[in-house]
Amino acid sequence: MIHSLFLINNAGDLFLEKHWKSVISRSVCDYFFEAREKAVEPDNVPPVIRTPHHYLINIYREKIFFVSVIQTEVPPLFVIEFLHRVAETFQDYFGECSETTIKDNVVIVYELLEEMLDNGFPLATESNILKELIRPPTILRSMVNTITGSSNVGETLPTGQLSNIPWRRAGVKYTNNEAYFDVVEEIDAILDKSGTTVFAEIQGVIDACVKLSGMPDLTLSFMNPRLLDDVSFHPCVRYKRWESERVISFIPPDGNFQLMSYHISAQNLVAIPIYVKQNISFFETGSSGRLDIAVGPKQTMGKTVECLVVTVHMPKVVLSANLSATQGTYNYDPVTKILLWDIGKLNPQKLPNLKGSLSLQSGAPKPEENPSLNIDLKIQQLAISGLKVNRLDMYGEKYKPFKGVKYVTKAGKFQQRLSEWLLVHTEV
Amino acid sequence: MTDSKYFTTTKKGEIFELKAELNSDKKEKKKEAVKKVIASMTVGKDVSALFPDVVNCMQTDNLELKKLVYLYLMNYAKSQPDMAIMAVNTFVKDCEDPNPLIRALAVRTMGCIRVDKITEYLCEPLRKCLKDEDPYVRKTAAVCVAKLHDINAQLVEDQGFLDTLKDLISDSNPMVVANAVAALSEIAESHPNSNLLDLNPQTINKLLTALNECTEWGQIFILDCLANYMPCDDRESQSICERVTPRLSHANSAVVLSAVKVLMKFMEMLPKDLDYYGTLLKKLAPPLVTLLSAEAELQYVALRNINLIVQKRPEILKHEMKVFFVKYNDPIYVKLEKLDIMIRLASQANIAQVLAELKEYATEVDVDFVRKAVRAIGRCAIKVEQSAERCVSTLLDLIQTKVNYVVQEAIVVIKDIFRKYPNKYESVIATLCENLDSLDEPEARAAMIWIVGEYAERIDNADELLESFLEGFHDESAQVQLQLLTAIVKLFLKKPTETQELVQQVLSLATQDSDNPDLRDRGYIYWRLLSTDPVAAKEVVLAEKPLISEETDLIEPTLLEELICHIGTLASVYHKPPSAFVEGSRGVQHKRLPARAVITLVKRTGLSGSNMGAGLGVAPAAMPASLGGAPAVGGGLGDLFDLGGGVGMPTGSYVAPKTVWLLAIKAKGLEISGTFARRGGIIQMDLSLTNKAMSVMTDFAVQFNRNSFGLAPAGPMQVLTPLSPNQTIDVSLPLSMSGPVMKMEPLNNLQVAVKNNIDVFYFSCQYPLSLLFVEDGRFYRQVFLATWKDIPNDSEAQFQIKDIHLNSDVASNKLQGSNIFTIAKRTVEGQDMLYQSIKLTNGIWVLAEMRIQTGNPNYTCTVPRIVYASLLHSQ
């Protein structure tokens, strides 16, 4: 099982270590550093690294490498999932998961790690349970603690720990009982240069924020559950009822959690909300080029597209860009070679356009690589797949809760490939 | 106020200051001091000098302080064992605390203190905690057994904790069950043959019940454990699959993949025409696709596993090609894996799409990825014949880009395409030749030279081209030199008149001016061939080459089967069997997919070649031999019955008495007698070494010659003390089956070399075949009869075992002790017919029928042949 954990920042400093079995020398991380160097980009470090006596399984989150050491055959996914859980727990406890917050809260971090794993076996990873065992730091509490001398550590056994519903603690009480659900859909798509869909799918999640007293038993039903054929549920969901009735029946954890995620890959169901027309060309002689990008709405179901951002990865030879945008602002970073055009709201009456000239390294040959264009956007009040929640019913408790559902569609990994560089002869 | 204050230091010396604070009277100050100590510890500072002071803080009601002290103890107890003993009393007291949290905490922490003296005191509290009324304590105690086992395995066995742990599998609380399974699995890993997780339909049922109710992590442990079970028939297999399927919708990807493993394995047993089989196949695709929308690291592991799954069952994902399309911001390790899977899924139906993608990738930024993409185009051409033409033209387009590494990579793959489709695309050679000068990588140069040599007759200036390479012959890498030598010889054989000078030049370069033995040898061979028999030379050098096929990229089927059993593990990420690389798992058992495969294999026996003959020899030849009482074979069926006692229960495998293998007069005074035994799944060679010489013998070592079943010593022979004159010492040598294989005559012959300080001695002995009968040799009842009938008569042997005064039940029990399993029993006309199965370590199945006439002491045994479950390693 998981033997040790090392936290390493982007500069290669090892700033925290925790061992669940015997102590393993931190020199084992040298193999990691070697791989890190080889990978150049931090994102490209291979997740599983083999060393003569150990395996290093690592994730990269928030500019921190979580490097775990294992010695025996352990499912790597298990380790990776656990590491993500650690990162999420830090985020949950300290508001953000960064080197500074971890160093600032090192003792709580240590207590948490000890509580999450025993001998390498996961012990308590549910945020509800952890929070009963170790209270998260708040300014108020640390003040109270300093004055009264009381501690951050719970003295009693968490109630959820052993019940059949380990995700919920007993005795929850709210004055305002409320249950909100966010249906968030992300479009992952690859479009070719003419805008035709090469591949498209929707990754959806339903995030819940449930603050209900007692032991509520909820049932969520959809208008069109047939859309969902590939789903992953939070452990609280009763799978049998989904199988037989296509409703989501569950006793919710307290607070925020992800109720389910789903995946729609049938391409006729994936609408592409906008189109991008682009033209980038280089003059065969001389060291300049031209760029022209226009964006317009395609299938927006009558909603407004917001937070529209277009990112282009330029070839290395492009030194600078002199462009003008009819809407929004643009920025070209000559170091990373990224052109970023922040458009904002898409106005269908007046389509945004970015054009102008590019200057290139003189004497450089025609760029070899094709650029790619990334699109970010957001559409409020729309689930692009058409998924609609029908109703939410509550059993087991008497009060009337406030209920609400919000929909939002975003671009996930949404990219369009650009045409090969067009070579143009300069007019003499 | 943040914890960073704990890192501030003063001039006076940190340790000194902390010491004072730890001994402060004020509780709050104490706690702050311990926090400072912990903070230093987390960044790897050595604060072990504070040990006594920190331990003094342990006696407290404050749970947080207690936990902090425990954290410290776990880290430093090892370096201060004498001090650590001071903590024992508090631990023992805490194990009796009314608060279950404290009881659990105490037993948990104690297990983490890796000091022998402490572990002694741990046993009693642990025993209590394993039976605690509170499940939270029990589940913590279960893990503690695994910890203790890691520190002192013998102690755990002696104290009977393993049995208690096994009992916990039936615990009423699912979390306790899950932890018990996890602990047992971890212990079992260091004892591969210990049979700790004795799975039977009852325990399986308990596990499946717990599966629905335990935490996500517990589900992983239980699923991985289930995957080791062999269902007795397809009905059981289906019912397990049905209960595991809902796990495919779990949010935790590790749960999903473990469930996939169980399903992939048990599916093997389902008949293909069953409706459920099709349903299950359909259910597997969506969760696998979903894994690809997770974080990159998860995707990587998922992709490595999907790579195995598509090789085993391509039908599952054949319509999902598009999810493997590469996004430009995928990490490189994800990109490369996706590419590989795309090729595996490529077929005539989707090849156009795949090629369009690959061409797109060939213009990306990342050089490694571009190379792989170009190579992938070549692999497509080889895999999908109809697409070859399109692939070649795509490659030519890419060559036109003149991007150096793209051109080189393209030439390497075009060479492979030529080898798959000879005489089809030679028209492109001209284009290739244009790029000759830009090739600077050995592999590309070698490929180009191969092409020129192979098609020399169609290239007008082939001699000039090759000559130009020859100029810098000594600077080329060995790969290029070898290729150049061969190419010029080919050219010479095709156009002997113009190239005589060239060939002489290359031959002398290769044979006289080179230090490379391969090159010299090849040069000399060509030289001799050409000078003695040019016709023969032509036949050899220009012989028709076997076509290459896509299969060269595929994982070899037996390895693939084993890897499918290891889905989700490190083995699946590295595509190597665990035995090849996991440290600490001595003699990992090779896992195999269950049975349906066996039936299809039976049919193949009809085609058996000489290898099959070798297998056939096994049982019938050996068993009758033992009837004749031949002591050398010792231990066919006759001997197995011969056990004294005689009543009822299986008494374990039969062990023949030791016989003398090496006479003292032949071995300068060393006499060796011995026998073989199978104990708990481990094969052992029991030896008695007697010193009949006048001087002391030391430095014993043992080695085996190659043998039919790959027997080899699993470790060195342990003779710790020197053997003085007239002393006898008994040694037990565990054997593994991982040695080199060679068929011996007789089959069970074993040649042994023993070395001591005096000399090396050789002897041979014969092991009983029953040694090789494995514990999971129970054939599937449902398919036994069908298999039995399918076996041709001519691969049957019949013999009698005489003078056995046992009834059939006793006989069957006794045989089971030696892993001969009775699958079914019939009584016909006063005759008991026992149908039995045996499985050998190398995967060969032996099916047998034994007829017992009540009152007749002679048994008749029919041993038809052997179902070939896996090919002998020996070929």
TrEMBL record, chain A:
Membrane-protein topology: Peripheral membrane protein
Gene: LOC107655430
One GO-annotated biological process of the protein: vesicle-mediated transport
Keyword Transport on entry: yes
Signal peptide: none
Top-level taxon of the source organism: Eukaryota
PROSITE patterns according to UniProt: CLAT_ADAPTOR_M_1, CLAT_ADAPTOR_M_2, MHD
Protein name: AP-3 complex subunit mu-1
Organism: Sinocyclocheilus anshuiensis
Main location group: membrane
TrEMBL record, chain B:
Location(s) in or outside the cell: Endomembrane system
GO-annotated biological processes: intracellular protein transport; vesicle-mediated transport
One Pfam short name: Alpha_adaptinC2
Ranges where the Beta-adaptin appendage C-terminal subdomain domain occurs: 773-873
The keyword Membrane is assigned to this record: yes
A single Gene Ontology CC term: endomembrane system
Ranges where the Clathrin adaptor alpha/beta/gamma-adaptin appendage Ig-like subdomain domain occurs: 654-764
Record's bilayer topology term: Peripheral membrane protein
Keywords for the protein's UniProt record, in alphabetical order: Membrane, Protein transport, Transport
GO molecular function: clathrin binding
Entry similarity comment: Belongs to the adaptor complexes large subunit family.
Name this protein carries in UniProt: AP-1 complex subunit beta-1-like
UniProt gene name: LOC107672709
